[in-house]
Amino acid sequence: MGIFKRLRDLTMASMNDLLDKAEDPVKMLNQFLRDMEQDIQEAEVAVAKQIAIEKKFKQQYEEAEEMVGKRTEQAMKALEQGNEDLARRALEDKKEHQTRFDEMKRQYDIAKTNADQLRNQLSDMKDEFSKMKNKKDLLIARAEAAKAQKHINQAMSGFGTDNAAKGFDRMSEKVLQLEAEAQASGELRSKGKSLDDELDQLGKSDGIDDELAAMKAKLAEKKQ
Question: Residue ranges of region Disordered (predicted)?
Fold first, then answer.
């Protein structure tokens, strides 16, 4: 592909090499794309110059071609008027323009071939740049996903560690101790009732016996 392909290959080789060492792939990828854009701009300037050369030779060979036709007509007109000397001089000048035409046409063909090749190479560079932009978006998405996963993994690395497990064990033991203390205090309170408390409790009723006695009395009245 010529100089542009070599330039692109060097850019890609540098990209792959530096990505291996890059601390931040996102910043590096953006920098590589900026470098490729600069390469494309320089290539566009080179192509524009070659196109200008092509157009210059085209203009020159067309002018020479026009003069060849013009001198041919003038030579014929001079012969028709019996001026052979003038006709000869017209043909001599025609020959010079023909020589110039042949040379300019040859140079134009070369320039056009070069310009067409550079156009194609520039188009390839732009296509490659577009592919790299799409690839950059994919790589950035992957990089961001990897960063997020790394952060989550780091955050979760503290879960279930020895310190956390020991801390939960200590809290479990403390809760058990509090429950045992609560139960013990209840038992102590129950054992600490006085004789008067127990005697007072004997006289207390929950009202069920009274209600049951009343219902029995009503039933007896109905039977009578």
Answer: 183-207
Q: Say how many C-beta atoms besides its own lie within 10 A of residue 57's C-beta.
A: 19
| pTM beyond cutoff 0.70 | no
Domain ranges of the chain: 3-159, 168-223
Segment-wise mean pLDDT, segments of 10 residues, the chain, 224 residues: 52 54 72 88 91 94 95 93 92 94 95 92 90 83 81 70 70 84 71 60 64 77 74
| Contact present, 87 and 75 (Cβ < 8 Å) | yes
Q: Which among 33, 40, 30, 29 is positioned nearest to 7, based on CA atoms?
A: 40
Which residues neighbour 122 within 8 Å (Cβ) at sequence distance 6 or greater? 4, 40, 43, 44, 47
Give how far Cα 206 sits from Cα of 81, 180, 209, 210, Å: 154, 31, 8, 9
Q: Which of 131, 129, 135 is nearest to 39 (CA)?
A: 129
Three-state DSSP at 24 gives coil
